[in-house]
UniProtKB/TrEMBL annotation:
It comes from Anaerobacterium chartisolvens. Residues 13-266 form the Transketolase N-terminal domain. This is Transketolase. Belongs to the transketolase family. Its cofactor is thiamine diphosphate. Pfam families: Transketolase_N (PF00456). Keywords: Thiamine pyrophosphate. The lineage of its organism: Bacteria, Bacillati, Bacillota, Clostridia, Eubacteriales.
């Protein structure tokens, strides 16, 4: 990836944050922290790497995507709308009682959503099933799943890891949003998961650790996962919760809190200023 393309993807990521913040402002609700840690990952997946057709969301040979940390729709919906799956104007209805854009993504209502998620720990099992189905049907698509690092405390996650490795699902790429903060505090405080690299290696995964805000590293890691044969890949994306807004970064209270008017003003100023730097 050349420098120009990297700047473009970085700009897309920043625009996803701005669009997501507008959604939260309109709804007076939404999970900002764990969505903003995903922006660069979503930019690279949907605007560079995934084989998809927004005009045909159910295209049989599309790559699949499962947002296992299903509350991070403030990252997902702006991505899908910007990519062309549904009108971007509809984002202003986020979390309205009569809107199809609920707080957790629903596959029956939102074009481009491959799996309804919300109960943490369950999305990965579905992604594993999608990857296994592709193998059995002779399909070439890749299944991507994004997990939260608080989510991996769920036992079902590790059952899915064992199954994926046992069945040599090299068409599965798991991305761990390792922002090291969850709802009530840091991962270390609540349930320290220890050396996750060693854990994933011991479960039979190809493991890649990256800066989850560096679009070039994200793209290279995805390429590495797709080139790996005989085992699934997990990309440990080291990220910052609330990335891009100084008073939110790394703070658990911004997991799902809505800013007040003054905080919104500061947040938008910081995001727009960063955008100007990227464009310059």
């Amino acid at each position: 990836m050349n420098a120009q393309r990297a700047r473009e993807l970085g700009g897309i990521a920043q625009n996803l944050r701005i669009t997501g913040l507008k959604m939260v402002q309109s709804a007076h609700s939404g999970h900002i922290g764990g969505a903003f840690s995903l922006s660069e990952i979503m930019s690279v997946l949907y605007f560079e790497k995934m084989n998809i057709r927004p005009e045909d969301p159910q295209w049989e040979d599309r790559d699949r995507f499962v947002l296992s940390k299903g509350h991070a729709t403030v990252a997902l919906y702006p991505t899908l709308a910007t990519r062309g799956f549904f009108p971007i104007e509809d984002l202003s209805t986020f979390r309205n009682i009569d809107s199809y854009l609920s707080g957790h993504a629903e596959m029956k209502h939102v074009p481009g959503v491959d799996m309804s998620t919300g109960s943490l720990g369950q999305g990965l099992s579905t992604a594993v099933g999608m990857a296994l189905a592709a193998k059995q049907l002779g399909k070439k698509y890749t299944t991507y799943a994004i997990l939260g690092d608080g989510e991996i405390a769920e036992g079902q996650i590790w059952e899915a890891f064992m199954f994926a490795a046992a069945h040599k699902l090299d068409n599965l790429i798991v991305i761990l949003d390792s922002n090291k903060v969850q709802l009530d505090g840091t991962i270390e405080e609540i349930l320290n998961t220890g050396d996750i690299t060693k854990k994933f290696l011991s479960f039979g995964f190809h493991v890649i650790s990256i800066d989850g805000h560096d679009v070039q590293q994200i793209a290279a890691a995805i390429d590495g996962g797709n080139a790996t044969e005989g085992k699934p890949t997990i990309i440990i994306a080291n990220t910052v919760k609330g990335k891009g807004i100084s008073f939110m970064e790394g703070k658990s209270k911004w997991h799902g809190k809505t800013p007040n008017d003054e905080e919104f003003k500061i947040a938008f100023e910081e995001l727009y200023n960063k955008n100007l730097k990227l464009e310059g």
